[in-house]
Amino acid sequence: GRYKATPFTNGLAATNAVAIGGAFLQGHVLKVGCMENGQISWDNAPILGTFGSFNAAGLGTVTYNDQGELVDAAMGHLDKHIVHIKFNNGVQLEVMRWSNHINLRITMAPRSGQDGHCGNFNGNAGDDTTDAIRARIGIGVP
Question: pLDDT tens-digit profile of 49-74?
Fold first, then answer.
């Protein structure tokens, strides 16, 4: 994820964009940014400038619409702009695009060796602190 301060976070960072890639996408990269200065792209080419669907090279589908349950109910008074990503391997993401940040929900089964910003999915929240994650994988995403 990319993190940036917003006018509403008093200098603190919020998630500004997310990039999904790796072996399961066969070298492809899907990026979703916020509404104000981001876009939805596949291999750096803009896609889904308006609501609709995109076939991700036969690896899954990306649907952009105004439907879905929000991660942050406090945003419920605003128009929804939600990207629904369903990959054939069972990984699903919902990215809620707001003016200058995004919220996301990731749904997937645990995978061997899984680790990252959200932790290692081993059922032990105690080893998913910022310090513990940095000790395992460093500051960047593996």
Answer: 999 999 999 999 999 999 999 999 98
d(CA 112, CA 44): 29
Say if residues 83 and 95 touch (Cβ distance below 8 Å). Answer: yes
Contact 83, 32 (CB under 8 A): yes
Residue 4, pLDDT > 80, answer: no
- Looking only at the bridges linking them, the beta strands covering 45-47 and 52-55 are unpaired
35, 99 Cβ separation under 8 angstroms: yes
DSSP-derived secondary structure for 93-135: EEEEE-SS-EEEEEE----TT--STT---SS-GGG-SHHHHHH
**pLDDT over 60 (residue 42):** yes
